[in-house]
């Protein structure tokens, strides 16, 4: 009896099984990608060669256990992976200066996202939405929004120098275990994080609005520099680390009615439209309080303990230091200064407290609370910024 009719199907099945067990792969052409189309699960990294040119389709692959990586592929124009649901490690794209489209309709899980210098990339076709990721860094792209990034939790979330990025709404995000940082994006960037409840550090530069109605606790810094919003409201925030409002030209109202503890230093400076500082439940500041500006009212009625120094200086002649002088011995552990109707209010380290001040830095006594550190990440250096500018001309 001939065994051919049994052996051939067995061989075919065996070949298919071996074909489906794919490891690390470098894709230099579409034929390379077609060669792994039978790999529903690819065990390793997929690296797109920097010499790749044109469109790339990664058909058939459902899972990549390693990373999806392309560095310096300046002639890659678009990448499509219709069946891919997860990338186990990093999704790294850097220097793809002609990339216009990412189409990953089923992708919902990645180890991390690191995209840099993708100036032609304006939108994402991530229909299922990426809900699970570790760290996310998106820098120097042409994206106008982050639709398709639908995270529930995130480690570091760093969004920098995306000059066309106008609006971000990550409705599902509830917790961040590392730094959330927005800097150098479109000047009118609007940010909505409606369900974010807890996090570590959050820093914001060059934004026009921020909504965090559910935010309750930060273990690290909350800071705002050079923003363009009029009001900051965090109605449910009870505690944070260092708290900084610096050089926000339009800020006229800070509303944190539930805030009881600042576990670090608290700085308000160079916010010239801010007239009233009202924190009715604030009890404890473990660092220094350092307020300078043009305000006429500071209400800290429940303040019980300031471990560091106290510096409060205002240009307004109606401001009254009497209450703070009365509590300096029992509440304030560090150095004390309170001054009204001063033409050049300064911060505790001698810097100008208003945008109209001419005071430069000068020496001052150091409080036991120490100075507040500026924790905003400015991760993209001059070389990367220059590369991005040149890429715009491609």
Automatic annotation (TrEMBL):
Example GO biological process? fungal-type cell wall organization
Source organism (scientific name)? Penicillium canariense
Quote the biased-composition stretches of kind Low complexity, using this chain's numbering: 346-366
User: Per UniProt, which keywords does this protein have?
Assistant: Cell wall, Glycoprotein, Secreted, Signal
Question: Sorted alphabetically, which Pfam families does this protein's record hold?
Answer: Ecm33, LRR_5
What the entry lists under SUPFAM superfamilies is as follows:
L domain-like (SSF52058)
Please identify the protein, giving its name as recorded. Answer: Protein ecm33
Q: Where in the cell is it found?
A: Secreted, Cell wall
Keyword Lyase listed: no
Query: Span of the secretion signal?
Result: 1-19
List the residue ranges of the region (Disordered): 341-366
Superkingdom in the source lineage:
Eukaryota
- Give a Gene Ontology cellular component term annotated to this protein: fungal-type cell wall
The protein's predominant localisation is secreted
